[in-house]
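MODEL INPUT / OUTPUT PAIR
PAIR INDEX: 1
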Amino acid sequence: DLISQFGRKLGVAFQIADDVLDLVALESETGKPPGKDVRQGIFTLPVIHALAVDRGLGEVLMGPLEESDLADVVARIERSGGIEEAKRECVSWAEDARATLLAVGEMEGGASRELIVLLNKAIAPVAQRVAQQVSTIA
């Protein structure tokens, strides 16, 4: 049903936002050290996009990563366009989620508005970083 589709799309948008923030946000913003996924060998969407452009990045990521390597790895992911592409996908999933919710129509007790608020909160940190693309999904 449409509500399930909304939930799935919201979940994907949130996960992509989390993946982007893992690379670009400060620990004070996320509550976890930057680059945690990369250091654990987890290839998130920004990394996957980067690997398609920067073939040598895979070799770097497969080896042991020292803390001192992290800034260079993040810079390579950013230079390859991986972070920007993931931001665009995050916004796209959020817009799709919003469109799906609009297809549901107004729900009792203002639930539709509350779900839009939830969607905005889920992607707000990424949306702020792509303000030229979208400020919030209104």
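PAIR INDEX: 2
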Amino acid sequence: LARQHDLRIGLVTKSTLIERDIALLQRIAERNTLTIHLTITTPNAVLARLLEPRAPRPDLRLRTVGRLRQAGLRAGILCSPLLPGLTDTGKALDGMAKRAKAADASFFSAQPLFLKPCSKEMYLAFIREHFPALEPMYRQRFDSEAFVSAAYRKRIEALVKAVCAKYRLGRRSGDALLTRTIGEPGQQLEWPGSSSGRLS
């Protein structure tokens, strides 16, 4: 990739090991559009250990975002998936966005959980074991659909928009994994009630 040019490259990881490749990533970014996404589902280390037992602690991943940004790389946070009753509240999103700002994240994004038939029962078994009071809500919400309702999705979109505006964070569009709409050279990002800010 470092020998190529004019590519649009999106990397998604939960691993802090990406730090060992900073020099290489800088070389790639010299002639290509590179966007790095760190998935951080929750800043709560105890909950994170339940949800992602093999992933680095959330504070370590936040530190990695900061180090990538200090190296001049475009790196942001995916707070996904948002888990109903666990990580989808306004308070939880505000806390994550605040940490994203402290890490100088290029953008912040959060998307609702969806449960494919192949993973639905496994996830519900996890809920039954660790959060049994939430199981009826999950059963109802995902009874016949893999995706959340339009009303829920709009509520989440509004919450994400609000915290991005509050902390002056760039927002990732649904296509940003392919880097087509975020972080283009010279692109301006706008948030309500403020002047435009450049995403870097």
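PAIR 2 NOTE: The CA atoms of residues 15 and 56 lie 6 Å apart.
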